[in-house]
Amino acid sequence: MSLDIQYRPHHYEDVVGQQGTVRILREICRTNKGFQQSYLFAGSHGSGKTTTARIFAKSLLCESPVEGQACDGCDSCIRFKAGTLPNYIEVDAATHSGKADMKKIVDSLSFATFSGNRTIYVMDEAHQLSRDALDALLKPMEDPIRGSEDKQLVCIFCTTEPEKMRATILSRCAPAFVIRKPAVQDIVDRLKYVADQEEITTEDPALVALVEATRSHMRDALKALGSLSTIGGATWDNVVSYLGLGNQDLYFDVIDSIGVDLPKVIDSADEIMSTTSPTSFYNTLLEIIMVAHRVHCQLTGIPSYMPTDRVHTSAQSQSTFLVNIAQKVADRVSKPSKNMVLCDLAVLHHMKAGTLPSYVPTTQQSTPSQVRPNTSPSNNSSPGIHETADASVNIGEKDGVFAPMRATKGFLPDVASQPDLIENGHLSRDAFFLLLRQRTDEIKNSKSSLPKAVDRP
Ligand SMILES: [Zn+2]
């Protein structure tokens, strides 16, 4: 059994970092004061909403709770743990969001024989429930099913996006319980406890890095600890290797070289993406940039696995341009290719170096036949249509995926001389990058001085 399942909390004492919420929930169960039929647990992914909801549900169903907590000894608790309690139903609304799904669940109520006097639904990702599904669910809450008038139907809604919850639910649940992510040290302490029980070797700095890199996500951290136990434990070297934190310097090389040294930007990004997906590259780059931006704004918060000196250097060297880089990275397409990433970096480089001229819209929808030297620009406002020094060429994809830009004067090879790269009047991102790559390679192979576009300012 994996560690995250084996050590999933079954008691309030094991819930990390939610003392305030736990105190209130225990009081509700102990005194029955403040008891409602609907509850809302809101919190980010991995914060422990569903786990807390389960423990609360178990205590509400327990036949003889102790100090507001399930006794673990009664028939209800035993069947709850075994997953055979008919009056506890957990629904993943992400996959069962329709009216038919909900009706099936609600209809099953009238056939079930309840051992207790409550039936509890825990609705995970509840914001995805459709209006019809909610109506089907709320009806038996307000209009009890015949023969079960003495039963209480209780709904616990868990969501990462409470703002998407329907007003009919919010008005029944106020106030919502906000489940916050636990503090790094609280999760580290929990990992140490688990590691002690399982006799897994750990190092404190490695555990801190592990928790930071898994974004304080308890389940992910426990899963990682389980995997690390098979390769000698959560030592610094193992954590860095397992979580791919060893190429931080390359990311800083990319950031620091933008606007200064294009070949180094491309080479460093190339090297990172030889072992990392473009999506993962963008995510990590954005994270590092925002950490550097925090430092630039004189805020604290450098994760322990990042080289502090390099964060400070990037914060100083890119200064306010960090925001431009972050915006470009954050605006990425959902499934970027490696060439899209490299192209975006090249655009950023030229923006920073001041070698990216503003584009001139043209009036006609260009076709391949229009791509010829010395064509003067017209006045079309179509997006993605731009003019180069030598030819009128569309650079950018029709769907606007590729940010508007113009080939850099004197840097790219003559686009018009390679008409096979132009399709329907558009030079695609990949084609643009191909040209850019040719040019970059030429520069790298050349012993002569670099052209102005890549000169250090
Ligand atoms: Zn019990």
How is this structure best described in words?
By secondary structure, the chain is α/β, with parallel strands linked by helices. The protein has 4 domains: 18-178, P-loop containing nucleotide triphosphate hydrolases (Rossmann fold); 184-242, Helicase, Ruva Protein, domain 3; 248-353; 368-454, no CATH class. Helix content is 46%, strand content 8%. The protein is built from 18 helices and 9 strands. It has helices at residues 3-6, 19-31, 49-61, 75-82, 99-111, 131-142, 167-173, 184-198, 204-213, 218-229, 236-242, 248-257, 262-272, 278-296, 308-318, 321-330, 338-353, 429-445; strands spanning 38-42, 88-92, 118-124, 152-159, 177-178, 385-387, 392-395, 422-423, 426-427. A 5-stranded parallel beta sheet has the order 2-3-4-1-5, sandwiched between helices. Strands 6-7-9-8 form a 4-stranded mixed beta sheet. Strand 6 and strand 7 form a beta hairpin. The radius of gyration is 29 Å and the shape is elongated. 39% of the residues are buried. Residues 359-410 and 447-457 have low confidence and may be disordered. Bound molecules: zinc ion.
